[in-house]
Amino acid sequence: MTFRGDAPLDPSQVDDQRGRGGFGGAGGPVIVGGxxxxxxxxxxALLLGVxxxxxxxxxxxxxxxxxxxxxxxxxxxxxxxxxxRIVGFVDSIQKYWGDEFARRGDTYLPAKTVLYTGATQGAxxxxxxxxxxxxxxxxxxVYLDLSFFQxxxxxxxxxxxxxxxxxxxxxxxxxxxxxQLGLLTQTGSxxxxxxxxLQADCLAGVWARHAADTGFLEPPxxxxxxxxxxxxxxxxxxxIQRETQGRVQPEKWTHGSAxxxxxxxxxxxxxxxxxKCDTSGVS
Length: 283
Hints:
4-stranded mixed beta sheet, 6 strands, 9 helices, single chain, alpha/beta
């Protein structure tokens, strides 16, 4: 997706923690879970407020000369650098939801994205690169290690591309929107988790429909929307189960099938309407 070269970026919406240390001591346990955007993190654990890595501490020494999002000042920078592209997506996504909440007579409270390398500490415990991107409702932040986008193509088989990155970021901010609207239902039910995740996919599509209206981006092309749909399919539970265990077990899904994830992103994009993202009827 192409950013408008002269669009001013606000890097203050991204907390850049890259270039800092990870685990102190021997390290933390591996959390093995179902498929989805994260490699091994169950979003259900976060929705329940579970802190599976709370017994571990981190050390975060600064590294001189590390790249910083403070260098990301315009859309031209977003077209050149992955970190600046994330800043641009965050700015656009939050501009849209701020305007949409205001149109509905409500107030959108912005959420920062934390960029990190390896691991960092958050209110939901450790954010670790192997977990993939996630939203923490405890501190209302999105956590992202840019290495995930390599995993998306190399391990999940997605074609990648800038708008695939935009989809991932918009999906996580979809959880923030759900949180503010009281839709982030806290339940251990796999079925409910699937509904929550598919709704976040739909909300990502709603933003995509209006992304150009925020002033940061050019209207997406069909090829760019295809990048998002391809990424959504790549992290479908059925695809991941088939590739990792050789069989599909719908009763263990936590995020939805490839077809469902594409369907709900497409619903959001085609309608551009938050009210059309009602996934309560998904079985």
